[in-house]
Amino acid sequence: MSEVKYIIEIATSDFITTQSAVQGGADRIELCANLAEGGTTPSYGTIKKCREVFPVLLYPIIRPRGGDFLYTDEEFEIMLQDVKLCKQLGCDGVVIGLLNTDGSIDVKRTAQLVEVAYPLGVTFHRAFDRCSNPFEALEQLIETGCERILTSGQKPAAPEGLQLINELNREANDRIIIMPGSGVRRENIKMLAQETGCTEFHSSLRGKDRSKMDFIHPVFADSADSYSNNAISPDEVRALRTSLY
Questions:
Q1: Is the previous residue joined to 119 through a cis bond, with omega within 30 degrees of 0?
Q2: Max Cα separation, the chain?
Q3: What is the chain's mean pLDDT, rounded?
Q4: Of 3.40.640.10, 3.20.20.70, 3.20.20.380, 3.40.50.300, which CATH number belongs to 7-242?
């Protein structure tokens, strides 16, 4: 029997964290800005530089703001333009998520984004965890042509949503990839794989590094935001994979 091939996706917040994730052996990058808000669309310059430098699969998130996943016509136009931009820059895919007021999937707009993105792959992100009927949503996202769903099983973290993730993966039956994310760490990733049958996993492994600034302004000396930067440990990325085997 052939060994299962696991895919590790890391959510990064800038060029430096992407560099660290790639050094750690990430298979795919979900490139974001503002991860503290759940991720928003990174800048043109960030996407372009990451595409030029890193050979791994690159999936920028298409999310014009933090907050909910109910978008105005103007916000949707922004999303369309950002998808086209990612396509022009040679990205491998994009990450999207749109809901209606009643908590159902915004099928029409999702399908439009998938069509505009083609032949890029499309992941539907954790907006899925805010939808009202996950099994109806599953079928709708398969129909739109999305290639995977990122989900924590409609719980704050994937280990808490094990049962639903398992049920979704069985229901998907290889028609779409179910990718657990949120709270995925080396301590629990093997358990998640065994309990859900999933083979792709998403983690942000967010950490902080002290600023290399020599001058620390005394007024802001106690400000962590002023003198620390987002960081990912390549060793932690490697540990995710080794923990699976």
A1: yes
A2: 62
A3: 96
A4: 3.20.20.380
Q: Which residues pair with 94 in a beta bridge?
A: 122
Nearest-angstrom CA–CA distance, 239 and 127? 28
Q: Would strands 28-31 and 93-96 be described as parallel, antiparallel, or unpaired?
A: unpaired
pLDDT at 168 (0 to 100): 98
Q: Which amino acid is at 13?
A: S
Residue 30 near residue 10 (C-beta atoms within 8 A) = yes
Q: What is the pTM of this model?
A: 0.95
Rounded-to-integer distance, Cα 64 and Cα 79, Å: 7
Q: CA-to-CA distance for 97 and 99, rounded, in angstroms?
A: 7
- The residue behind tokens 């099983």 is 153
Residues near 86 by Cβ (< 8 Å), separated by ≥ 6?
47, 60, 62, 94, 117, 120
In sequence order, what are the residues at sequence separation of 6 or more whose Cβ sits closer than 8 angstroms to the Cβ of residue 224? Answer: 208
Taking residues 212-230, report their average pLDDT. Answer: 92
H/E segment holding residue 12: strand 7-12
Q: Are strands 148-151 and 93-96 parallel, antiparallel or unpaired?
A: unpaired
What's the mean pLDDT in 157-183? Answer: 98
